[in-house]
Design a protein that fits this description.
alpha/beta
C-alpha cells in the first residue's frame, strides 16, 4: 500500500561492519570493501572513532551468532558508501542514524532497525535501479526524478514515523524531502537472501517499487503517468472493468484487478496496479516461489508473465513491447554489479 507523508510521496548497497579495507573522513563517510555487518543496532559493531567507525577488523562476536548463512551472504557486498549523517538535511539526522547512498537516493534507518534489514532494503533499491547489475542505473531520467526531489526510503517503526513528522514541521524536511513508501521493521516481511532462499514474501518488493515508480510516472507520463489517459491508466481501467474514480461497491464480473481499499484514490489505484503488473512480469508471483499470488486473489490473480500476456494484453504490451529499461529480474537483496 502506498503511504504519503509531507508534500510529496515517500532510498543501495549493502555494506558491512567497519572492518576490512575501510577508510573514514571528517564528513562521517565510510567506504568499505566486502565485510560482514551485524544484525543488531547500528552502533555496536560500528563503534570506534568520533563518527562511530573503526578501521580494525571486527571481532567474531561483532557479526552476531544469530546471523544465518543467508544473512551473512547479504552483508558481503562490493565496495559501497555509507554515511552516518545526511549530507544536506540535518533535520533527517534527528530521527535517523544510518544512511545508505544508493545512486544518490538514500535508504535511511533508525537505531532500532537491524543492519541486515536496512541493508537488504538498500540492495533491493539498487537492483530495481540497476536491474542488469552492470553498475550503471538503467534509466538515468527515472533516477533523476528521485534525486532531484530528494527521495529517501525510511526503514523504521510507526512510532519513529510519527515523531519524525511532528519534529519536521517548520524544517526543510517538511517541504524538501520526499517519501513515497516506508518499510516497517517488526511489521513488514523481509526475505533475506531473496524469495526462493527465504521461502517467504518480501514486502520490500512492493514498497521500494512504490518509490522507484514515481520516477516512471514523471519521466514517461504518456505511457506510465498516474493520471487518466495514460496508457497505464487505460490498461488499469480495462483490468477493473471500467473507469472508477472511487472504489465501487463491487467490480464487474471478469475484472482481474479489484483493489478495495476505499482510502486509495485513482492515482493510488494506478500505483498498486503498476506494482502487480511488474511482479507478474518479472515472475515474482510464481506459485512455485511463494504463496503471494494465491493469498492476493481477492485483489489480483495474474500470477505469471505468460498469464499477463493472455489476460492483460494492454499492460503486457506496455511493459514488453517498447524499449523501456524496466526491471526484468526479481530483486534478491544482494546487489552484485559486474566489474
Amino acid at each position: 500500500m502506498v503511504s504519503a507523508f509531507g508534500t510529496v510521496f515517500v532510498a543501495l548497497a549493502l555494506i558491512g561492519c567497519a572492518g576490512g579495507n575501510s577508510s573514514s573522513s571528517g564528513t562521517g563517510v565510510l567506504t568499505t570493501e566486502p565485510a560482514a555487518a551485524p544484525d543488531s543496532d547500528h552502533g555496536g559493531c560500528l563503534a570506534g572513532d568520533e563518527f562511530g567507525l573503526s578501521d580494525e577488523t571486527p571481532e567474531p562476536e561483532c557479526l552476531g551468532e544469530t546471523l544465518s548463512q543467508v544473512e551473512r551472504s547479504e552483508t558481503a557486498p562490493p565496495p559501497l558508501r555509507m554515511v552516518f549523517e545526511h549530507p544536506e538535511f540535518d533535520c533527517l539526522n534527528v530521527t535517523f542514524d544510518m544512511f545508505v547512498d544508493v545512486f544518490g537516493v538514500y535508504v535511511v534507518g533508525t537505531s532500532g532497525v537491524p543492519d541486515a534489514h536496512l541493508l537488504h532494503t538498500a540492495n533491493v533499491l539498487a537492483q530495481y535501479l540497476d536491474n542488469d547489475e552492470d553498475g550503471v542505473p538503467d534509466d538515468s531520467d527515472v533516477l533523476g526524478v528521485l534525486t532531484d526531489h530528494n527521495f529517501v526510503v525510511p526503514v523504521w517503526m510507526e512510532s519513529d514515523r510519527d515523531s519524525f513528522w511532528d519534529g519536521a514541521r517548520g524544517t526543510p524536511c517538511e517541504d524538501d524531502v520526499s517519501m513515497a513508501a516506508s518499510m516497517y521493521y517488526g511489521q513488514d516481511q523481509w526475505a533475506l537472501g531473496g524469495l526462493q532462499a527465504a521461502g517467504s514474501w518480501d514486502t520490500n518488493l512492493e514498497e521500494v517499487w512504490h518509490v522507484v515508480s514515481v520516477g516512471w510516472y514523471e519521466t514517461y507520463p504518456e505511457f506510465f503517468g498516474d493520471e487518466p489517459e495514460s496508457r497505464l491508466s487505460k490498461a488499469m481501467d480495462t483490468a477493473r472493468g471500467g473507469h472508477f474514480e472511487h472504489i465501487p461497491d463491487s467490480y464487474p464480473e471478469g475484472s482481474w484487478y479489484a483493489y478495495d481499499d476505499d482510502t486509495c484514490d485513482y492515482r493510488c489505484q494506478i500505483h498498486e496496479y503498476f506494482y502487480w503488473l511488474l511482479m507478474a512480469n518479472i515472475g515474482a508471483l510464481d506459485p512455485s516461489i511463494s504463496d503471494k499470488c494465491d493469498d492476493s486473489r481477492h485483489e489480483w490473480h495474474v500470477c505469471s508473465k505468460s498469464e499477463l500476456e493472455q489476460v492483460d494484453e494492454l499492460a503486457y504490451a506496455l511493459l514488453n513491447h517498447y524499449d523501456f529499461s524496466l526491471p526484468t529480474r526479481i530483486p534478491t537483496g544482494t546487489y552484485l554489479p559486474l566489474d
